[in-house]
Amino acid sequence: YEQEETTLRELRLFLRDVLNKLGRDRKFHLFAKPVDTEDAPDYYEIIKHPMDLGTMMSKIDLHRYQTAKSFLDDISRICLNALEYNPDKTPAGRAIRHRACALKDTAEAILKVELDPEFEAQCQELVNSR
Ligand SMILES: O=C(C1CCC1)N1C[C@@H]2C[C@H]3C[C@@H](O)[C@@H](O)[C@]2(C1)O3
């Protein structure tokens, strides 16, 4: 049991570090907090599964991520929502779409370099065993 808690603690530390790296990049600031309906009144009519980097940090602390894959799934959700809501028809929409793709690619690139596949496999085994 202790070994399992040690593994999950290490995962939380790793994921906070990844989020901090993404949060330091100014071009990802628009993904930092939930979309404000003041700015986009129809946003939550269109986007049914909103996600943002601040919510992800809370989810880490709530022990909502048992694997790095589930963390990446939420990053992909942020990207998908941005592509869905922001059409490729205006410079503003294109800029958001570009940054959404950069967010996803950057997160995947960090994990490719910093995440040990063995460690991720150990996390997945933990999920399977529970
Ligand atoms: O999709 C997003 C965010 C980017 C990733 C989440 N928004 C929808 C609105 C449209 C556009 C301009 C502002 O109205 C601002 O509120 C938003 C925020 O950007």
Describe the secondary structure blueprint for this structure.
Elements: H1 2-24, H2 43-46, H3 53-61, H4 68-85, H5 91-114, H6 117-129
The structure holds ligand RHJ.
Ligand RHJ binds near residues 39, 40, 43, 85 and 86.
**N- and C-termini, Cα separation:** 11 Å
Helical residues, percent: over 70%
DSSP summary: helix tally: 6
Question: What is the C-alpha radius of gyration, as a whole number of Å?
Answer: 16 Å
Mean of the pLDDT scores?
97
User: Which structural class fits the helix and strand makeup?
Assistant: mainly alpha
How do the SSEs run, as a string of H and E?
Answer: HHHHHH
Small-molecule components bound = the ligand O=C(C1CCC1)N1C[C@@H]2C[C@H]3C[C@@H](O)[C@@H](O)[C@]2(C1)O3
Our estimate of the beta-strand percent is: under 5%
Compute the number of strand runs: 0
Q: Tell me about the biggest sheet?
A: none
Shape: elongated
Low-confidence stretches: none
What does this structure look like?
There is one protein chain. The protein is mostly helical. Helices cover 70% and strands 0% of the residues. The protein contains six helices and no strands. It has helices at 2-24, 43-46, 53-61, 68-85, 91-114, 117-129. Helix 1 crosses helix 6 and helix 4 (68-85) packs antiparallel against helix 5. The longest helix is centred in the last third of the chain and has 24 residues, at 91-114. The structure holds the ligand O=C(C1CCC1)N1C[C@@H]2C[C@H]3C[C@@H](O)[C@@H](O)[C@]2(C1)O3. The ligand O=C(C1CCC1)N1C[C@@H]2C[C@H]3C[C@@H](O)[C@@H](O)[C@]2(C1)O3 binds at residues 30-31, 35, 39-40, 43, 82, 85-86, 96.
